[in-house]
Write a structure and sequence with these properties.
The chain has about 350 residues and is of the alpha+beta class. About 25% of the residues lie in helices and about 25% in strands. α1 crosses α2. The longest helix is centred in the C-terminal third of the chain and has 19 residues.
Length: about 350
């Protein structure tokens, strides 16, 4: 029987194009590439790269990365570890999913079984393994609300570890995996706890409005999922080969959060600028801070929907999405990113933080 190392080396390929494996459809080739379906193969791949002093890039669904035009000079491991197990614990259901499972398929499965807690995260592209890294969230729900633990391979200690939710150090669209321990852990499995026969979460204004327009006062989980998908499609935030506006990484920037005092200063600053709409799109948070709409800031800075920059631009449906129009390059994506950041900072004093990871740059 072949060893994990032999199995890994048999799957190894050279100069594999990465662009088709990303939702943006941009980027050069991986010098070395392997599709990983087991934890043992993952560990074998990490050992192989370390012995050759090669940089390591771990790819999931490719929905949150911008790959350099030159590609990646080391080993790219695409995590395709699958498998879903569920068990009931009193009034809750515990779900353990492989990092390579498609996220929206898992959400659809939960909704079909009437398990609540992730219904508002419908339509988000990518795989399960990415959800803890980004603390993926949308329409009033976040991964951190249901996550119990993650299993991950620690590239520093060379051990498979289990980290509880508190150890993940979740924040708004972030975690320890994205901040202080970036590139240290490779997530292999994620465990969530959902409510069995629970009601849907309806906290977000857009979602409340959509459901009200449909006359749904007591919507089911399935109806909430349908509403979320409809809203996302209207903003080209659901991957659709027939919609060129969806050739993106979704939201390119995080909605910034600022202190109340900063918000008051921002209002005064905007009122002094005749070309800006003084009605700031913002959302008060429970901790006293204020969340701003990155899309509103971008449009006020002059980057309207459908803005062009070479062969890339902003979506015609949502200014927060930077899209590959046709044959765009990573260089053009980064140029547009920096133009937007610079203009928003000059006008409003707000730093916009990109959501996607830049690979090979």
């Amino acid at each position: 029987m072949p060893t994990a190392q032999q199995t890994f080396e048999e799957s190894l390929r050279e100069n594999v194009p990465l662009a088709p494996m990303t939702t943006l459809g941009i980027g050069g080739p991986a010098k070395f590439f392997a599709d990983i379906t087991t934890t043992d193969a993952l560990i074998a791949g990490a050992v192989w790269a370390r012995r050759r002093a090669l940089p390591l890039f771990v790819l999931g669904g490719g929905s949150n990365v911008v790959v350099a035009d030159a590609g990646f000079p080391g080993l790219t491991l695409r995590v395709s570890i699958t498998g879903i197990e569920s068990r009931f614990d009193e009034h809750t259901v515990v779900i353990e999913a492989g990092a390579g499972e498609e996220w929206d398929s898992l959400v659809a499965r939960c909704v079909a079984n009437n398990w609540s807690g992730v219904e508002c995260l419908s339509g988000i592209p990518g795989r399960v393994g990415a959800t803890p890294i980004q603390n993926v969230g949308a329409y009033g729900q976040e991964t951190s609300e249901t996550l119990v633990s993650v299993e991950a391979f620690d590239l520093v200690t060379n051990r498979l570890v289990t980290l509880g939710a508190a150890e993940c150090e979740f924040g708004y669209r972030t975690s320890r995996f994205k901040l202080r321990d970036r590139n240290r852990f490779v997530i292999t499995r994620v465990t969530y706890r959902l409510l069995g026969d629970g009601g849907p979460s309806i906290r977000y204004a857009d979602l409340q409005r959509n459901l009200a327009e449909r006359g749904l006062e007591r919507p089911t989980l399935a109806q909430v999922r349908e509403a979320v998908l409809a809203i996302r499609r209207s903003k080209a935030m659901v991957i659709d080969s027939a919609d060129p506006d969806s050739r993106s990484v979704g939201s390119f920037f995080v909605n910034p959060t600022i202190e109340l005092e900063e918000f008051e200063q921002l209002k005064r600053r905007i009122q002094s600028q005749a070309e800006c709409d003084s009605n700031i799109v913002s959302f008060p948070l429970s901790d006293g801070r204020v969340k701003l709409s990155a899309a509103w800031l971008i449009e006020q800075a002059g980057f309207k929907r459908g803005y062009l920059h070479g062969r890339v631009g902003t979506s015609t449906k949502h200014a927060l999405a930077i899209i590959n129009r046709d044959g765009g390059t990573a260089r053009e994506i980064v140029e547009l990113k920096e133009l937007i950041q610079s203009r928003v900072f000059d006008l409003f004093g707000i730093d916009l933080t990109p959501e996607p990871v830049l690979i090979g740059m």
